[in-house]
Amino acid sequence: MEHGQIFVLSIIIIVFGGRIIRDHLRLKHMEPRENPHYQTRIDELEQRVRTLERIVTDKGYDLKREFDKL
Q: Which of 5, 7, 11, 38 could pair with 1 in a Cys bridge, judged by C-beta atoms 3.0 to 4.6 Å apart?
């Protein structure tokens, strides 16, 4: 390869490498609520926690635990 070709290839590698690093850092520092995938997962987990809270605070749950102790 000639020096001119190496120079052009080096510039291309630097530009694309910089873009990859920039995108990686942007995604790494992105708030979870800004990413739709994470937001969907957070919503699913919040619904599961609500369901578990409802089960645990249900009086029937306490009664079942008392029967289990006997």
A: 5
> Does residue 25 sit in the same domain as residue 9?
yes
Q: How far is CA 27 from CA 8, 24, 32, 42, 43, in A?
A: 29, 5, 10, 17, 20
Quick check: 2 and 9 in contact, CB under 8 A?
no
**Number of domains comprising the chain:** 2
Instruction: Verify that 70 and 44 share a domain, yes or no.
Output: yes
pTM above 0.85, yes or no: no
